[in-house]
Amino acid sequence: QVQLVESGGGLVQPGGSLRLSCAASGLTPENDGIGWFRQAPGKEREGVACISRSDESTYYVDSVKGRFTISRDNAKNTVYLQMNSLKPEDTGVYYCATVRTVVGGNQFYGMDHWGKGTLVTVFS
To answer: Is 36 left (phi over 0), alpha (psi -120 to 50) or beta?
Structure first.
């Protein structure tokens, strides 16, 4: 059984940084991609970044390129999201999920398993 547990959310001022962690267990070879998603209040959930566990390919949506970095430690079965230069519009609940396919470099499909999320609030 695949389980994903996020941590690392919190309150931060604009321009600040946070590092989120996604601890995974029960992964199979089908679960090669692990992605980060976020949902702001009143908005739909959107993909943020994704990483392949096998070849370390990474993918980002345009709004976070140059500010966020996704990485993974396969020995710890953990995927990280380093978030720098945070903006108020980055506020939301951040989820990690398994990802089957990435299309066009920034569209994530086939999210079979989700964590429960961690809240990030960027306020001034």
So the answer is: beta
What are the per-10-residue average pLDDT scores of the chain (124 residues)? 96 98 90 94 95 88 96 93 97 96 87 96 92
Radius of gyration of the chain from Cα atoms? 13
Query: By C-alpha distance, which of 88, 8, 104 is closest to 47?
Result: 104
Helix (H) or strand (E) holding 51, with range, is strand 46-52
12: left (phi over 0), alpha (psi -120 to 50) or beta: beta
| Sole residue written with tokens 């609940």 | 93
CB 34 within 8 A of CB 24: yes
